[in-house]
Amino acid sequence: MNLDESYKLLNVSSDAPLSEVQKAYKEKMAKSHPDKVAHLSEELQKKAKELALEINKAYNNIKSYKGSRG
Fold first, then answer.
1. Left, alpha or beta for 46 (phi > 0: left; psi -120 to 50: alpha)?
2. pLDDT digit string (tens) for 17-66?
3. pTM value?
4. H, E, C per residue of 3-70
5. Is the pLDDT of residue 70 over 80?
6. 66 and 10 in contact (C-beta within 8 Å)?
7. What is the CA radius of gyration of the chain?
8. CATH code for 3-68?
9. How many CB atoms are closer than 10 A to CB 6?
10. Could you state, in order of their start, the residue ranges of all structural domains in the chain?
11. How many CB atoms within 10 Å of residue 19?
């Protein structure tokens, strides 16, 4: 996942401060967390886990980039 895709997934602009990125990450995870669909089908649980991994990847990607820029 490239940096642009990461920003798009978290729905933040590339000039957003890390605090805004973190807030967007937390909100997205709260809505998309696999525990929210634990009572649903295995297919939906699998999709939720995949989405959670993508959200984590996006956040870590942005965090690493912004952290390396000082």
1. alpha
2. 999 999 999 999 998 888 888 898 999 999 999 999 999 999 999 999 98
3. 0.88
4. HHHHHHHHCCCCCCCHHHHHHHHHHHHHHHCHHHHCCCCHHHHHHHHHHHHHHHHHHHHHHHHHHHCC
5. no
6. no
7. 13
8. 1.10.287
9. 23
10. 3-68
11. 8
Q: According to the model, what pLDDT value does residue 66 have?
A: 86
pLDDT for 6-17, tens place per residue?
999 999 999 999
Phi-psi label, residue 2: left if phi above 0, alpha if psi -120 to 50, beta otherwise: beta
Three-class secondary structure of residue 2 per DSSP = coil
- Contacts of 19-22 spanning 24+ positions with Cβ under 8 A: 21/59, 21/62, 21/63, 21/66, 22/59, 22/63
**Per-residue pLDDT band at 68 (split at 50, 70, 90):** confident
